[in-house]
């Protein structure tokens, strides 16, 4: 009887040690896991806290290239009709609805390049931000003056090369190759999954690159898969060059057009306000009539989410008309400017 | 019989000790968990405050760089200067649905205004949206010049960004 009780007590002790041990072990494992997860989130948050002002500073200094060292974590960009965000690691995301960013969907490299250009129509509508990494190689096919112009304005520190259409290219270890061309592509022996082409076709009626035109996004075997889109101004051509694909470009273009519509409405209201605040019969007053009655409404009615080449043609022409009106305001009467 | 009783008593004492140990260890674990939870809650609150401040700074950064309100001369933007007529135009535009929804997706729950302090006190309300019963407000004030393009005179004021959370 006594022996039986001792055995039970001993078993009970062992069971107790086992349960308490398991509870303590579980507690420490859980807390260390949480700690690890928190550390990842904290790293992501700290990184975003640093990245956010860098991106803003980059937007404020158009034409300046910045090289940023980034932590070893995945950065993703998402763009849809209503919402854009930048996701870092698995822990944190930043709303990018206001920022107009052209980039690949994923950024995985030790360094990040940021570059920006102002999009003027002709007033400043937005600053476009371009993101890329040293793992992307840009080839500009020297088959026309347009492409040379694009290459000359491209930041020099980003891996880019002006090549002839007769060149023969092989894989040199980059993750992505972007070809910018007007007519022909060179012969390449690179895996077509890594290759992406942007064919630039400025409008025939002007023959100016920095106007409006058509873009053809090519990819796949022998660049056989083609999708078309449109552009208005050089900053959007660069947008296409830095974009992941036609969908990403179109989504960002849609954001840009939305902003154009809003900015156009604001500028029109501003000029109407100035016009009505001027004393009656003021010499400046007639100079605002054409912009208010034609140019601003012309831009507004063509700034669609999915613009056609005809829409962009009208916007370009009205923007030129606003530019001329603004110059008249400076030249003639020292009136308040339109922009 | 007497021996049996003594053994029984010893076993009872051992059992009592074991139960006491269980109770003490359970209490210690309970206190440990409570302490840990409390620390975590405080940490979480700190993090939330930090996020709110971070969001307010981001918002202030967006607003203070908006070409929609900044002074410009032929595409050259003048930082720290807001155009009086752009403020009025933004205020009118935001009253229209399309512009309001556009800015709501950017400015979220916040109040944006420009207070002219000198020479006259004028308040330009630009945007207000407070959908939630606000628990806290992070306010950031940025000194700005308010430029009148007709009189070509500058006034002094502050751009006030109040982020509700």
Describe the structure.
The complex is a heterodimer of chains A (339) and B (165). With 339 residues, chain A is an alpha/beta fold. In chain A, 44% of the residues lie in helices and 26% in strands. Chain A has a 6-stranded mixed β-sheet with strand order 10-9-12-14-15-16. In chain A, helix 4 packs antiparallel against helix 5 (289-302) and helix 5 runs antiparallel to helix 6 (309-333). Chain A is extended, with a radius of gyration of 28 Å. The mean pLDDT of chain A is 90. Chain B has 165 residues and is α+β, with helices and mostly antiparallel strands. Chain B has one domain. Helices cover 52% and strands 32% of the residues of chain B. Chain B contains 3 helices and 6 strands. Chain B has helices at residues 2-64, 84-94, 97-107, and strands at residues 70-73, 76-83, 110-118, 122-129, 137-148, 153-164. A 6-stranded mixed β-sheet of chain B has the order 1-2-5-6-3-4. Chain B is rod-shaped and about 115 Å long. The mean pLDDT of chain B is 89. The chains are: A alpha/beta (339), B alpha+beta (165). At the A-B interface, helix 1, strand 8 and helix 4 of A face helix 1, strand 2, helix 2 and helix 3 of B.
What is the strand and helix layout of this fold?
The complex is a heterodimer of chains A (339) and B (165).
Chain A: H1 2-60, E1 66-69, E2 75-79, E3 84-88, E4 92-95, E5 100-102, E6 106-107, E7 111-120, E8 124-132, E9 136-141, H2 145-153, E10 160-163, E11 168-170, E12 176-181, E13 187-189, E14 195-202, E15 212-219, E16 225-232, H3 234-242, H4 246-277, H5 289-302, H6 309-333
Parallel strand pairs in A: 5-8, 9-10, 9-12, 11-13, 12-14
Antiparallel strand pairs in A: 1-7, 2-3, 2-6, 3-4, 7-8, 14-15, 15-16
Chain B: H1 2-64, E1 70-73, E2 76-83, H2 84-94, H3 97-107, E3 110-118, E4 122-129, E5 137-148, E6 153-164
């Amino acid at each position: 009887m006594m022996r039986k009780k001792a055995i039970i007590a001993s078993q009970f002790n062992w069971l107790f040690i086992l349960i308490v041990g398991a509870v303590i072990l579980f507690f420490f494992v859980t807390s260390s896991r949480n700690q690890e997860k928190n550390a990842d989130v904290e790293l992501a948050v700290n990184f975003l806290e640093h990245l956010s002002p860098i991106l803003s500073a980059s937007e404020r200094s158009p034409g300046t290239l910045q090289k940023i060292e980034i932590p070893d974590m995945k950065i993703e960009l998402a763009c849809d009709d209503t919402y854009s965000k930048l996701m870092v690691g698995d822990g944190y995301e930043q709303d990018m609805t206001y920022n107009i960013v052209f980039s690949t969907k994923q950024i995985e490299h030790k360094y990040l390049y940021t570059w920006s250009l102002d999009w003027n129509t002709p007033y400043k509508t937005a600053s476009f931000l371009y993101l890329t990494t040293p793992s992307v190689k840009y080839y500009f096919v020297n088959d026309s003056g347009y492409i040379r112009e694009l290459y000359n304005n491209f930041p020099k520190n980003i891996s880019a090369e002006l090549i002839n259409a007769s060149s023969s290219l092989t894989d040199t270890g980059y993750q992505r190759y972007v070809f910018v061309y007007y007519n022909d592509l060179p012969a390449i022996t690179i895996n077509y999954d890594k290759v992406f082409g942007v064919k630039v076709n400025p409008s025939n009626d002007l023959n100016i690159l920095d106007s409006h035109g058509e873009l053809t996004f090519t990819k796949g075997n022998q660049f056989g898969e083609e999708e078309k889109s449109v552009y208005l101004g050089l900053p959007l051509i660069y947008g296409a060059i830095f974009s992941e694909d036609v969908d990403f470009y179109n989504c960002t273009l849609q954001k840009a057009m939305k902003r154009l519509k809003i900015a156009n409405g604001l500028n029109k209201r501003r000029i109407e306000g100035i016009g009505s605040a001027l004393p009656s019969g003021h010499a400046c007053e007639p100079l605002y009539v054409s912009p208010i009655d034609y140019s601003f409404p012309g831009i507004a009615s063509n700034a669609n989410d999915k613009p056609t080449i005809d829409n962009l043609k009208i916007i370009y022409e009205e923007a030129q008309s606003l530019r001329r009106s603004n110059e008249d305001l400076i030249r003639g009467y020292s009136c308040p400017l339109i922009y | 019989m007497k021996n049996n009783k003594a053994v029984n008593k010893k076993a009872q004492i051992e059992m009592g000790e074991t139960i006491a140990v269980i109770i003490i260890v359970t209490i210690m674990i309970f206190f440990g968990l409570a302490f840990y939870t409390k620390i975590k809650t405080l940490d979480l609150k700190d993090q939330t405050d930090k996020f709110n401040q971070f969001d307010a700074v981001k918002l202030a950064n967006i607003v203070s760089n908006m070409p929609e309100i900044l002074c410009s001369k032929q595409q050259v933007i003048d930082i720290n200067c807001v155009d009086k007529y752009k403020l009025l135009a933004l205020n009118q535009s935001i009253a229209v649905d399309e512009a309001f929804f556009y800015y709501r997706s950017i400015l979220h729950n916040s109040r944006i205004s420009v207070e002219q302090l000198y020479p006259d006190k004028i308040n330009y309300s630009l945007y207000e949206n407070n959908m939630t019963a606000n628990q806290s407000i992070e306010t950031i004030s940025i000194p700005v010049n308010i430029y009148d393009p007709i009189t070509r005179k500058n006034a002094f004021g502050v751009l006030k960004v109040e982020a509700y959370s």
